[in-house]
């Protein structure tokens, strides 16, 4: 980077262009954002027709029960 300070403006621009192109070629591709329309209907069947808050509450209670069983002495 110190060497770039002594380059002419034209050489600095060429170096910058080269570095940008190099980064583009070697950088991993960015993930394409999906549209909500594409994932419509992907939820498991128990969610269909069930109130979202009721499902969250039930799922949390089930997880709490599993954690409680694993944390009991002798289990």
Describe the protein.
The protein has 75 residues and is mostly helical. It is 56% helix and 0% strand. It is elongated, with a radius of gyration of 28 Å.
How far apart are the first and last residues' alpha carbons, in Å? Answer: 61 Å
Major pleated sheet = none
Tally of contiguous helical segments: 3
Structural class: mainly alpha
Give me the strand/helix succession. Answer: HHH
What's the count of strands?
0
| Low-pLDDT runs | none
Rg, rounded, reads 28 Å
Overall structural domain count: 1
Mean of the pLDDT scores?
85
Overall body shape: elongated
Strand content: under 5%
In helices, the fraction of residues equals 55-70%
Q: What is the topology?
A:
Blueprint: H1 9-26, H2 36-39, H3 52-71
Provide a brief overview of the structure.
With 75 residues, the chain is an all-alpha fold. It has one domain. It is elongated, with a radius of gyration of 28 Å.
Features:
single chain; mainly alpha
């Amino acid at each position: 980077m110190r060497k770039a300070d002594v380059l002419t403006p034209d050489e600095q621009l060429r170096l910058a262009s080269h570095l940008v192109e190099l980064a583009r070629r070697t950088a991993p591709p960015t993930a394409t954002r999906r549209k909500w329309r594409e994932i419509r209907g992907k939820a498991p069947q128990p969610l269909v027709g069930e109130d979202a808050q009721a499902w969250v509450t039930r799922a949390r209670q089930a997880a709490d029960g599993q954690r409680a069983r694993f944390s009991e002495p002798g289990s």
